[in-house]
Amino acid sequence: MRKARAHGEDDGTHSSEADRHSGRPEPDALRKAPAHGDHDAGNPPPEGDAHPDRAYAAGPHTDSAAGKPDAHSRHATPGTGDRHLAHSADGKGPAPQRPEPRGGLLMGRPFGVPVYVAPSWFLVAALITWVFGGQLERVLPELGAARYLVSLFFAVAFYASVLVHELAHTVAALRFKLPVRRIQLQFFGGVSEIEKEAETPGREFVLAFVGPLLSLVLAGVFYAAMQTVEPGTVPGVLLAGLMISNLIVAAFNLLPGLPLDGGRMLRAVVWKITGKPMTGTVAAAWVGRALAVSVLIGLPLLTQSGALGTDAVDNVGMDTVLDALLAAILAAIIWTGAGNSLRMARLREHLPELRARALTRRAVPVESHTPLSEALRRANAAGARALVVVDAHGNPVSLVREAAIVGVPEHRRPWVAVSGLAQDLTDGMRVSAELSGEELLDALRATPATEYLVVEETGEIYGVLSAADVERAFVKAMARPS
Predict the structure, then answer these.
(1) 259 preceded by cis ω (within 30°)?
(2) What is the reported pTM?
(3) Judging by DSSP bridges, how do beta strands 363-367 and 180-186 pair with one another?
């Protein structure tokens, strides 16, 4: 194997890429040595997965962009800025790994996509059972207490319809080779978490439209089934309720504003006309915010006026309060989802700025028996902030963890070999210096770690990439206006 050369190893004076471009002098101490990019911003972003997600929703729930970028904040050492390598962590070692959030009770894996039922679903199922049970008491009083069992069946059947809506999004996404992380049924409906953006406005439109289309198809199926049963019976009432509920789901999701399916369709149309996906997102998001205000004000007024098929109400009663509360919840969901969509669009716009080559720290190679004090002296002399353990042939075998260095008192460092503080390299911990954007985040997500070895295409060592540096760079990019 070719002998690997650490970036900046030659004479200890090689400047980093960021130093050369920024005009800053090369620091003469390890505590001042910058990484290969000017990335000293803020705190890590909220934890999640590496991809900005698409979340297609059914029911009163929104079609919100729920994904969050992540360079593995669960596993990363807190940001260190330009502090000394030996004094830049908190001394507690790397953060313990936590399992990926599952999202509730696993119900199955249709098309290979896990379907979860969130704990909040049980709350809304109980609410539907109670409300629908009260309606059954007026329509079918002979049922008695059994009406609540029928109501529970309706709640389950309704969410089965919501699942079909979500599966429509999922199948379309898989057809377009877009990975789907999971489907989750929750308080206000369901959500399909699609990990990548549609490549064209046409695909975006189809991906959004298939959900409401399937809800309309289900409404038609339930209507056809109603014709085969006697009105005023349990089957007739259930089929009528499911038909109406699916019509409501379809109509609500077709409203032309983010984060609803109709908003995705509007975004696709504007994207097609302007050629700019960001323009489509901005337009659909502001329409979504206008819809939120309309729902907040208009829904209580419509129910009070009797326009929705109820009796007009002149005074303020419990029903009016409940209508206002429901309107406020729906408006908040739509408004928040529209804002999230704008943030996710800005995320995608800034993702290309995350480049492994620019974020990599300079590293010096040391052999496994090298005392920590000597390794730090060499790194200090070279202006580096990372240590790579190499074998006798110069091939990298492990990375010295920054957090582990902090745990060694200074007076013990001459007697502690770097091999005892290093993490063995796996294939996933070697990343190309050419990676950037989503490809870089994909690589980090595939192998969670605090540090990664960055190599050139020739196999030579370029340096060490810290997950915390990627996080800080992302936060800094997101803080800049689009």
Answers:
(1) yes
(2) 0.63
(3) unpaired
